[in-house]
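Please predict the structure of the following assembly.
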Amino acid sequence: MTVVQPPKAQYEQIADWLRARILDGTYPPGSALPSEPALAAELGTSRVTVNRAIGLLRTAGLVKVRRGAGTYVRSLPQIIRDAKQRYGARERGTGAGEVEARELNLRSRTDYGDIRRMSATPDVARALGVAGGDDVLIRPRVLYANDEPTQIADSYYPWDIVGGSALLQADVGTGGSYSRLAELGYPVARFAEDVNVRMPNDVERRILHLEATQPVFDIVHVALTSDDRPVEVAFHVLPGHLWTLRYGWDDAVTTPPGQGTP
Amino acid sequence: MTVVQPPKAQYEQIADWLRARILDGTYPPGSALPSEPALAAELGTSRVTVNRAIGLLRTAGLVKVRRGAGTYVRSLPQIIRDAKQRYGARERGTGAGEVEARELNLRSRTDYGDIRRMSATPDVARALGVAGGDDVLIRPRVLYANDEPTQIADSYYPWDIVGGSALLQADVGTGGSYSRLAELGYPVARFAEDVNVRMPNDVERRILHLEATQPVFDIVHVALTSDDRPVEVAFHVLPGHLWTLRYGWDDAVTTPPGQGTP
DNA sequence: CAGTGGTCTAGACCACCAC
DNA sequence: TGGTGGTCTAGACCACTGC
């Protein structure tokens, strides 16, 4: 074939070539790419080179490999995670977890891990403003949309606030956990989130069906009362190629324009 | 050597092994890893396998390769981009671009591209709520910290608002562009951002010194007046391994707790 | 010019899938 | 059982660095 020129590595050119064919519909979503030996023969290159090119597409989340079966173009429905809407959803009686799935008409499911009392790790203690080793409640869970894993979320609460409450159950009832916190005397007034991108660890790769080079959003979410007491910290891990994060906030400037001085 | 067991691929085990040695200080930041032939000999494997292992570390931003010279451990100062603080900075007389660098005592620099009038692309037109092809002002720039590229930022403004204003100059003056917009009669009241993660394109790779498998934050930032008119849209591209995004917002729930009904 | 990483190949063996 | 992708090797050539 005549696709390969020196300025770029062959495998990058092949990746560009395949990507273009995916985007222009030659290989529509759900369809299989030609096999690696077939592509190698067609392009006059080795299978290793083709494999490396496809590796770039996998990293970008464009294709998904089924071992022994073939390489398939992903049908990628981007999920929007609107922070304000997500955490304001209790007016509608739903927990935050179902907001996005509902939006896209996806079947939503939440699998809970072991909800239990434990000693706070340093990370959790710092985020909650408690002493290291203090007791906290952990609510670990994995969220699915159409049976595809879309999110890992581990929430922590100070035990002295939530001990004995409905938050020990998987189903926390109408309005979700923030409604329960309000009833316990700790209504949430503000949220803060730190967002990072990183590669998934082994556990996350297994749970989220990711490869070593597919980045994840790593979100640390803190809920605060009006007097700035943290009442929940949640660690979210989301496959990067599935999500768009949406934030909105009001301008913080209080002084009139043109008053600033260096 | 005795590091390799079958359940995981050799290159992944080697990557884990190297990562552990970087994190425990065996290879401190700034130091060079042993050469690939040396590692291959020591581990009893081939150079290609070592190269693939190091590729995983590069993707994670842990090491940086200098062609012909060696592979070096990155000293990674995470930069925090606090959205609220960043865009409230004009009280202190600075533009948004210098907030983070100043915070970390880094030398900050902004290189401006061609500031000019142009026709809105569909993306820009949609974000600004103008008709496709309407004139807009583009202010393209690249931000550096300690001479390392840290961000690409292309801002667009409706021409009918900013035409002939100070925004045509690279230096927009005290308080930055939002102060000028306020003076023009369009004070900004709210911000909205969409955040994605993706792999960089060729241009971004060159400008930001990234590799094909190093993810970037792709941020679409919109500034709105109190009557929800968009007056600026900015497209930001940030190397993922350099940044933490920080957001804060007030709870949107207006109804008292416990009132929700499914 | 010697050493470094970037890339490519041909061939091989394996695990897994579908028939 | 044949086809698929996952991985590994030995060897090679190249561009680039730094002495």
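Chain B touches chain A through 59 residues (CB under 8 Å). Chain B has a mean pLDDT of 89.
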